[in-house]
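Collaborator request, handled under Task 6.
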Amino acid sequence: MLVLLAFIIIFHITSAALLFVATIDNAWWVGDEFFADVWRICINNTNCTEIGDGFTDYATMQAVQATMILSTILCCIAFLIFLLQLFRLKQGERFVLTSIIQLLSCLSVVIAASIYTDRREELHRQNSELYRQTSEGTYGYSFILAWVAFAFTFISGLMYLILRKRK
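Structure tokens returned to the collaborator:
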């Protein structure tokens, strides 16, 4: 039982770490001489431009930013609630509240990654002055980590739903 508990805790911490890296790191769209994310666009590692109000369709990027931040916060809250429920639940009860919050985190990250996937090409075309050198790029590791974090938070949420407290 202790091994299972350790696995669940490590799995949850890994999910949170993936969400932090995917949200913070600047590698959602990368190429040879540039990298871009939901916060800024950098060319030649020195010329960085923050994505702000002057960005066309800025509301889309704000939606991606907000849902990634929300998913990270919800994942951390779910972990804290799991720890509280670990000591407060009666024997045989399920970790339903932790599961619900973790599945909301999963939903938030899939919304963010889906919005970015759907709108990336149009955002680059509308903001061609910022993205003119980034047309030959590919999705970066932060973007991939966001999708991996989706899978991890989904599996974690299901684990909490199935898990019952034992002695």
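The cover message to the collaborator said: "The chain has a mean pLDDT of 87. The longest strand covers residues 40-43. Please let us know whether this matches your experimental observations."
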